[in-house]
Design goal:
This is Paraoxonase. This protein is mainly beta. It is built from three helices and 25 strands. A hairpin with a 2-residue loop joins strand 23 and strand 24. The radius of gyration is 20 Å and the shape is globular.
Length: about 350
């Protein structure tokens, strides 16, 4: 009798493991390949060889780029290189990436930048907020941008018990922002368990010096976040559920869910087309290749545009798709007056004239 029970439990356990492995392959689109969609006038950006995970563009066309992210379970081409912030002027015909100097008061050796967001105050001073993972923890760093010197002056480090496993950020006022938590567990193996069991324990939080609170929850892996042009709606990418959530922002900073758009691809960072209000989504068509990196069969890249986001039937078009032969692991895309700039988790960046 005891052996029968043991064999039954063993069989049930093996069946569960097998079912979860199948589920992981499904969630990561392990069998998916993309058909190429590539604009004619594109070139790789010099100097960005260790990733360009997130990009934010000022109305003037200056683009800030976070580079050098070290993320658990992800390949890194510059493991001994500290993270950096680059600047590109998208008004230039052939823009180049320039490293921004950071003030000596900041610990640059442990700089591990992830999501970024800019904020401009009433006197047009520009501040850059950066999600940082020093020693694999999570902080938000506030920098002041000195345009003439092409440098960043570190002003403040923000830490909080709810700022755990932070992925992305969107600034909505002075020291006020929404941020996403992409994993509930901080241990790498437990995050694999979390993914395998399809837990929905991650969230979006609001931070201000007076109040810090969770304002949306129930995400499998809350990732990219951005705000609509009219500042009334927040858009959040759930990378493992392959969708984008539309949430209405209230005066007290709470968020109310309105709709969810399924995309069939793993959505990373989100940005807004300043001319149309469309969402640009940097996506991973096959995340299994991203997690199990093979240079002979690299992860591809995909950029989607979502038109008429708030309508009953938004339309989706592909701005860029490549099987990894040119660009690997796209995480973000921005557009500025007919220019397209695509960033990646650990690879290069691509600039296109549309």
């Amino acid at each position: 009798m005891g052996k029968l029970v043991l064999l039954t439990l063993l069989g049930a356990g093996l069946a569960l493991i097998g079912e979860r492995l199948v589920a992981i392959r499904r969630r990561t689109n392990a069998s998916r390949e993309v058909e190429p969609v590539e604009p004619q006038n594109c070139h790789l950006v010099e100097g960005l060889g260790y990733g360009s995970e997130d990009i934010d563009v000022l109305p003037s066309g200056l683009a800030f780029i976070s580079s050098g992210l070290k993320y658990p379970g992800m390949v890194n081409f510059g493991p001994d290189e500290p993270g950096q912030i680059f600047l590109m002027d998208l008004n230039e015909q052939n823009p180049r990436a320039q490293v921004l100097n950071i003030s000596d008061s900041f610990d640059k050796a442990s700089f591990n930048p992830h999501g970024i967001s800019t904020f401009m105050d009433k006197d047009h001073t520009v501040y850059l907020y950066v999600v940082n993972h020093p020693n694999m923890k999570s902080t938000v760093e506030i920098f002041k941008f000195e345009e003439r010197q092409r440098s960043l002056v570190h002003l403040k480090t923000i830490q909080h018990k709810l700022l755990i496993s932070v992925n992305d950020i969107v600034v909505v006022g002075p020291e006020q922002f929404y941020a996403t938590r992409d994993h509930y567990f901080t241990n790498f193996f437990l995050t694999l368990f979390e993914m395998a069991m399809e837990l929905h324990w991650t969230y979006v939080l609001f931070y201000s010096p007076r109040e810090v609170k969770v304002v949306a929850k129930g995400f499998s892996s809350a990732n990219g976040i951005t705000i609509s042009l009219d500042k009334k709606y927040i858009y959040v990418a759930d990378i493992l559920d392959k969708n984008i959530h539309v949430l209405k922002k209230h005066d007290n900073w709470d968020l109310t869910p309105l709709k969810v758009m399924q995309l069939g691809t793993l959505v990373d960072n989100l940005t807004i087309d300043p001319d149309t209000g469309d969402i640009l989504a940097g996506c991973h068509p096959n995340a299994m290749k991203l997690l199990n990196y093979n240079p002979e069969d690299p992860p591809g890249s995909e950029v989607l545009r979502i038109h008429n986001v708030l309508s009953e039937q938004p339309s989706i078009s592909t701005e860029y798709a490549n099987n990894g032969s040119v660009l690997q692991g796209s995480s973000v895309a921005v557009v500025y007056h007919g220019k397209l700039l695509i960033g990646t988790v650990f690879h290069k960046a691509l600039h296109c004239v549309l």
